[in-house]
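[step 3/7] fold_predict: job queued, chain A
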Amino acid sequence: MLRLSRKVWTQLAILATVTVVATAIMAFGFVKVPALLGIGRYTVLVDLPASGGLYPTSVVTYRGSEIGRVKSVDVTSTGVRAVLSLNSATKVPADVSAAVHSRSAVGEQFLELTPAADANGSKLLADGAIIPTGRVSVPVEIGHLLDATNTALMAIPPDNLRTVVDESARAVDGLGPELGRIVDGFSSLAIDAGKNVGPITTLIDQSPPVLDSQVRTADSIRTWADRMAAITGQFRAQDAAFAGLLDAGGPALNEGKQLFDRVAPALPVLLANFVSLGDIAVTYRSDLEQLLVLYPQGTAVMSAIALADSGVKQDYRGIYLDFNLNLNLPPPCNTGFLPVRQQRAPSEVDAPDRPAGELYCRVPQDSALNVRGVRNIPCESKPGKRAPTVEMCDSDEQYVPLNDGYNWKGDTNATYSGQPIPQYPPGVSAPGDPPPRIDSLPALVPYDPETGTYTGPDGKPHTQGDLVVDPGPRSWQSMLVPPG
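[step 4/7] structure written:
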């Protein structure tokens, strides 16, 4: 009797184990023996108007995933009935529609189940359920499509069709990579559209109002198109001039660029100044309008009265011109400026910074002195108010004069009103009063040699009659010789 060794028995055991595992994988993984035996499966009937190329063992999909196969396709008195074997693990709503599609150009058909929009809460497909013909669609038979295509091609004269084919070949000749990129781009677009179905659906749902607005404005669009056609027609008629403009435009643009490059450092400052000037123009818009209205009328009046006086026999005479200067009538306004001992001497030639505050004639607004002074400028932001500064116009502060305008009151650096000189904007404190400029020449003040009266730096009248010595009669020759 032949006795097998332990090694052979081990090898036989391993072979048997591998055979059993492979058979199980084949039976359950590929052959799907449980499905063949009906385990974990249920049957659904589909009534089709035509087979549409569907055949037994065709794939059945739901939401893109395979859930079963077609067991059989039988002809009935009203059409075709397909028997489906579906996987029980996949829950399919009862309210579904079925459509036959093709997987490839060779006609590999499959059946796709699509749930209704509101099928989430409906019942599920059960064993023996029937999908009626009203919820089934089949593709157009390729034979009918080929017949229709052939009929359309027969309607075209062969020579013209050959011309179309030849021209099409020339149009796409050598454009394989470009066409490939176009196809790839459309594929990517379709994939992205599939990922954004919700927004695209919303866009489609909300597009009717936009399209309706286009329909309502059809006349305006047609008018715009006609005018655009007229403009393009003018361009076509003036093609040579337009081409010349384009030819000369390049050098002109280069010159303009070079100009802007040269003025680039100063251009921002200039534009900033223009902005400030524009703000001023907006603020004083009414005054500018009045000036533009009155200036032509004033110019016309001046042109009418500016006639020569000599040789005119009529009573009407033109502008009367004389040389009566009326000096010191009215006297100059000194109120609101620096006191005499703080004023610069005429002999100094340096250029110091101007005082931080405002220096102007600060007499009452109804005074006869300097009636056109800055104190009487109307406020644009507050009609009826007059103030010397924009800050005072915009605030609730009212103009307060220093005195009646003819003489100083108080000491040399202040007034009885307590206001500083110069006047500082609201919220800015005035620095300490500067010391008197004793090193400077005293400024000229009005002096009456007949009475010897003058106004001193303290604002008070003084009398001193020996300031001018009468040298007696002098000849004009002695006036040309220096004293001594």
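[step 5/7] annotate
The radius of gyration is 54 Å.
The CA atoms of residues 185 and 191 lie 10 Å apart.
exit 0
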